[in-house]
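Rotation project, supervised by the postdoc (A.L.). Task for the rotation student: set up a whole-complex structure prediction and record inputs and outputs verbatim in this book. Inputs entered:
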Amino acid sequence: MEKTQISGIQLYLILLGFLFGSSVILTPALGAGRDAWLAMILAGVAGILLMWVYTTIALLNPSKTLVEILRDKLGKVIGTILSVLYIWYFVHLAALVFRNFGEFICTTTLPETPVAVVMGLFALVLLYVVNSGIEVLGRLSELFVLILPTVVLIISIALITEHDFTAFLPVLEDGMAPVIQAAFVNLTFPFGEAVAFLMVFPHLNRMDNLKKVVISSTATSSALAIFVFARDLIALGSDLIARATFIPHLTSLLIPEFNVVPLVDINLLVGGGVKISVCIYAAAKGLSQVTGTHDYRSFSRAVITFCVVLSVWVYENLIEMFAWAEKLWPYYSIPFQFVIPLLLLLLSLRGKNKPSQPNTENTETESCTSDA
Amino acid sequence: MFGRIRNKSKSGRNNSEEIVQTGSYGPIPPSADAVKASLNEIFSNCCDFILREIACGKNGAIRILVAYIDGFVSKNELNQDVVRPILDFLANEESPGGSSIYNRLTDCIVVNNDIHEAADMHQAVDGIISGEAVLFIDGETRALVVGVKAPQGRQVQEPDTETSIRGAREGFVENLLTNTALIRKRIKNPNLKLEMMHLGDRTKTNVCICYIKGLANEAIVREVRERLKKIKTDAVLDSGIIEQYISDNRLSLFPTVGSSEKCDKLAGKLLEGRVAIFCDGSPHVLTVPYLFVESIQATDDYFDHAFFATFMRLLRVIALTTSTLLPAMYVALVVYHHTVIPFKLLLTLAASQQGIPFSPFVEAMLMIVAFELLREAGVRMPKPIGQALSIVGAIVLGEASVAAGIASNLMVIVVAITAVCSFIVPPLLRASMLLRFMFLIAANFLGILGIAFVAVAVFVHLCKMRSFGVPYMAPFAPLTVNDLKDAFIVVPIWAMITRPKILRQQENVRGAKGSQRQEVNIQQ
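Outputs recorded:
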């Protein structure tokens, strides 16, 4: 194992950036319309349960990454195949976020610059981040992630005069079905994507904090997301919300006499940056462990280049990307986010009960003999 | 190309080794004539080398050679304390043999306190060239080195480069021993350790590591010693050269070794558990580890009311950001983000840009380069001409460029504010100067996004750096809550109970607890 370590607060902030980052421009639970806040609460609770699953897996297999756990529990062949699939999943996720970022910048700020240029330069910067190691990512998060809630606060205060609280009504006009559907979408994006953190958890310096840190970070990010949605709904009204592409961006345009689009850009840079860095790190690290090399850095360059190319190549345009992310991504994610982790949890729990009992017996007998 | 440089350095090293080899001149010959001959050969063509022969005792039987460099030693002291007693006491002696004379000289004749023995010619020559007088006695193979150095160099005065409103006016001078005495004067404690070493094969510069034992982290002290020993060069003319050799990240724009001319500042750093490096011939004393946050700290902060100090810290942070980012931000806003600028200001801006042939980027580059030229000229120029320069600068930069339609009014304001701000945080002056250009270029390509990309890269670099094992961006990243009391916010000095924790001192608490333990140590 590498000796690099991150502290509890660093992990908290990385995870916060990861989970809240995309919500800066997208609202995943939008399928439920004005009831999205209900869906977000449900997704938040489910997300915390999911984090409990992930952290329990990590705690039952201390100082092991996802790839090592997979190979350990499912055998070398199946474990390696699943690991490769996971690596693909992380790469794909990073590519999605890349495209998201590029499209947003090119739609709102730099309409004449090609998407590939923006993404390519972003990739260069992120390559530097990833190659500097997870420790540096943690320190960067300490400096940058707090920008996210600060900007939320600034925009909210600036919009304090724009409000229409009746926008929440009527509640549950179409019944529970769309809410549950939206909650599921929201659970897969962003909460389930945190499965990538199974590659990062072993770096935490005090493992007994893991659950507390991860769950409080998840709760914070979902509370922030709900707050942002409620603010947007109150400011924009449900009609506009149903039609807009980038809702928080549209809200920020409402601020009188002042344009804060660059602030939203910076927000996306921070959130998207953290998310892509973690994904690239997870993918590169996974590749290095699958191939048995020591340093993930030799892979990160290839992985990030591939991500950029993939993100340009995989979707024709913005509309196609959104459609894909909304309709297919949740189902595509099910095995990675729920099925395999639950399987691992069960196997780890079984594995823990079996060998640990003889171990404790052994130590007891040893202590007895030494006493005698 | 690199190969060539390496070859060069290799040949340089060979040369220096030869010097070391020829540097050992063998033992001291017992005969005074032989000593005379060999000294005259070593110091041939040195008009400042003085070799005086004293022949005393009955019939001039006792022959003593006094060798020194003129101008280095205090002649008065040499005559009073060394030559006169010899003439007085040994005037009528029979020659009892060289070794017994040597013992009598050390025991009861030479008045001076600072004497030691030179066992071979090499040590004797070392003594002569470092400004001491050396006595050779006929028939004896040891020489006596007497420290009668004349006080050298300028008086202690207020440093020009670092001025402060509150606090001591004393600054370091070129003489190492004066500097160490200035520190001793402030920290009266035998635990203040001063370790001397010689660096530079040709210059043999005295370099001194200074730290407070029981306070500074031993690992850091050891690391400093190691790195200083590794320096392979023939000339150490200034502490700046040492700084470049011992820096963690030698290619970084940001300093990882601090330097100061102020005694009270250095004393403060030592008491925080840092290690200082004095270099003979340089008034700039180095301190390690040096963290980013130290560049916004000033001695005044601790002597003043905490509220004002906090306000000053925040001002310095604003100044640092402004001086690095303002021109880039201006260009980004004008070129890419008109919408962000309030409408009325936009009108003024458009009016002032009218008739200017250059793009805002070129305009900014021209003005910044012009300012940097003026600044550099101000540094190099003899002081009396400085006034003329400032007049030229003010008229050319302020008035004529606008009137001639080369730069817009707003650009002049932007560059002026940038220039003023750049002087507020002196340790990062150069770093922010170069970063300014990088940000400007990035802003011209991608607007605010470009600035953000470069900023992220710069922060990655900062977060990666360490100074002697201590993370450079501490206490912000990694977050050390305990140390935030002396970062953007300054708490009153009576509430600053602990030293910066990130340095991992042996003794973290200031005040009563620490001093008690020290007393126990002394009793033991």
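Student's summary: Residues 8-349 of chain A form a domain with the Amino acid/polyamine transporter I fold (CATH 1.20.1740.10).
Supervisor addendum: Chain A has a mean pLDDT of 86.
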